[in-house]
Amino acid sequence: MKLAFICTEKLPSPSVKGGAIQMMIDGVSPYLSQNYQLTIFSVTDPTLPEYEVRNGVEYIRVPQENYAVNIVKKLSNRSFHIIHVFNRPLNIPLYKKASPSSQFILGLHNDMLAEKKVPKEKGQEIVKAVKRIVTVSDYIKRTVLDRFPEAKSKIKVVYSGVDLQEYPPVWTDEGKNIRNEYRKKYNIENKKVILFVGRITKNKGPHFLIAAFKAIARRHPDAVLVITGGKWFSDNGINDYIRYLRKLAEPLGNKVIFTKFIPASEIPNIFLMSDMFVCPSQWQEPLARVHYEAFAAGIPVITTNRGGNAEVVSHKETGYIIDEYQRVSEFAKGMHFYLTNPDAVERITKKARAFVESNFQFHHVAGRLTDVYEELKPKRKEPFIHRLFDRS
Fold this sequence. Notes:
alpha/beta; 6-stranded parallel sheet; globular; 392 residues; 8-stranded mixed sheet
């Protein structure tokens, strides 16, 4: 069966510049390509050819300008049984016209069917046009059904995952070796390392983390805060918000480290060098995959009860949840809890790692996607002679 993935126009596949969708596709492709003829459409990138076949997967890349039109041109010359479109519902009518015999799946990693993004009538047309909708969390599923209850029979949650081979937990010899190497690299040996990983934007909340860390630095002089990310994935440009963050961090001197963008291949090592990860999101987070990454590395997690985060984080069981997400003191309280309760840290991180092992490896994700695809597989008709005998 021929299967196509159509990425957004923002980032290329494979995930040479990061991106949750692209990283998930990287993870599931080796499994799906064993059973399907897989083609991945994405945007061009200077480091990648416009066309290649890699590990049995066909990659077709088109320019960002007029991206959807460029994809339509490619689809017009090809035939696919299933086309899985990520995060761009408005493009589905165009793609369906170009490939009318294909069955379409809409994959949502964000609230892309929200009122401000898709008019009601257009949304109804899209829901009718697709065979299935898969969402990255139950939260995103609910946002769809709140507007389009008619999608109920088509919608399914497919959580993302992580490659455990890239995350030897910190209590293993391999994990310890990576931890020591990267702590030397950043000159943070013998420190308590608090980590933020993500795009440096206001809705991700790093300003709350810096403000809370001021109290932590007074009570724990050996603590440092590492902020990893750029203003937009691989973009290390400076904007007003980043200037504000750096000014906020100035009084703390070298206790706050801005690493800027780190390639996706190095992110596991950044987690492994840390003592805890904090996701201070202020917006309704669809369900950030950084939670799976921290779980896999054996790093305790603090997260806000926003969007889908609490679907995988249980308070003081697999992590620490902050309900009052706009109170700086709540973040300081969570960080202090981990810094002063090593027994709780060990219990929580071991349970979180086991949770990932059982539910959120990429072979689990591929299996959940396969279940969706197989539902759409044409059923073989029995030969006419068999049906005659069945009646006798």
